[in-house]
Amino acid sequence: MPSGLIQVGVVSLLMVVGLIVGVIWIGRVLRNRVIPLSGKLGIDPGPALRTSGLGTAKINGLVCQGRARLREHEDGYVLAERTLRGSYEVYWLPREAVEAAEFKREGLLRQRSVQLKSEEGRNIKVYGHLAVFLKKAK
Questions:
Q1: Single pTM value for the model
Q2: Under 8 Å between Cβ of 12 and 42
Q3: Cβ neighbours, 10 Å, residue 129
Q4: Which of 48, 61, 98, 115 has the lowest tally of Cβ within 10 angstroms?
């Protein structure tokens, strides 16, 4: 009889762990879709024309793996980097800077990238589908 109690206990524990993981996953999915890209930009960029998915960017040498998102506006782009707290740090990229940027393929896998400079003076490099997002706007 004790082995039956152990099996019931293990199954119950696995169900609780699965439920917790499921709730956390659903919360993250909803947070990614519902929370707007907000932060202190300092200017009003106007209405968004289109928004990219999450991707990778390097801001002043710090890599944001899968935590960066671009939003296109009439006069430029907003690069939003999700911090570990869940909020966003935002950077303004004027359209002229994006149009003057050079698109490259680099690295072992020849990944697409573009080097930019934000209006705040930060060195920004976006990779993969974020670079393609900027190239399509060009």
A1: 0.63
A2: no
A3: 15
A4: 61
**CA–CA distance, 83 with 91 (Å, rounded to integer):** 13
Note the pLDDT tens digit of each residue in 54-109.
Answer: 888 888 888 888 888 888 988 888 888 877 766 677 888 888 878 777 778 876 66
CA–CA separation, 98 and 79 (whole Å): 12
Three-state SS at 138: coil
Q: Which SS3 state, helix, strand or coil, does residue 10 take?
A: helix
Query: In 1-138, which ranges are E strands?
Result: 50-51, 55-59, 62-72, 76-82, 88-94, 103-106, 111-117, 123-127
pLDDT digits (tens, 9 = 90+) for 6-19: 787 888 888 999 99
User: For residue 106, which of 131, 69, 136 has the smallest C-alpha distance?
Assistant: 131
